[in-house]
Please model this.
Amino acid sequence: MTRDLSTALGDNRAALLALGERLLSEPVLPQQRRLFLAYSRALGGHWRAIDEVVIPALKAHGWQGVRADALRGHVLLKQRMAELLSATSAPWVDGADPAASDAVMLAFVAEAQAVQRREGALLDPALAMLGDAAENASLAAEVDAQMGLLFDVDPPPRPQQPGGVVPRDLVEEARVVLGSWPKD
Model:
């Protein structure tokens, strides 16, 4: 059976939701932070798939069957991630209040989980009708490729520098967020 676009995004969304649930239920803070890094990368891959594959395909087909608010959460969530990455209370900032930074991280993940569920309900019906079977299968392969660039559920822990800040992580997170914005 050929994999279609709706199924590919649904599978990726399900993996994101499972990782988010795992993060939200994790009682150990260092493990939460490690899972947040994996979650952020996976979310960045999902955003790239939406921006690089789904939006151009929907546009090419005249936005047929797409509700006006279908991508609103997608855009707002990317904005929230950018705010989180630049917040002084972020978990990776020296001197950040650990309780506040962890609360911000967990609140973002909870919000992202809700957006993922809503996005699926709004986009999947339109994606199921998109193009013929061959085009839809090709789009599904592109989505999987975008997700594969960044999706790593269990990355190995990186050594931390004094103060808990890992500059490579900050640069990687910024690259993920900035790389997910549409290129005009």
About this structure: The chain has one domain: 5-156+164-179. Residues 46 and 147 are 6 Å apart (CA to CA).
